[in-house]
Sequence to fold (74 residues):
Amino acid sequence: MTTLERIVEKVRKLPDEKQAEVLNFVEFLNLRSSGAGEDEDLEWSLFSLAAALKGMESEERPEYTLADLKERYE
Fold:
């Protein structure tokens, strides 16, 4: 079994959202290997930030007040 066949077999077993993450990573690797990205560190940072925050758009943000602060600098 080739590497590609093994990858396809494993990806098929993943839920759709995880398959989308795999696709995102593959696209990042293609971009990086094509030489299109001059600053690889920046590219990687943007990719990893997007992956880490994926799905959080719909989460509610907590509402903090000044009373929640442990320390306050003025």
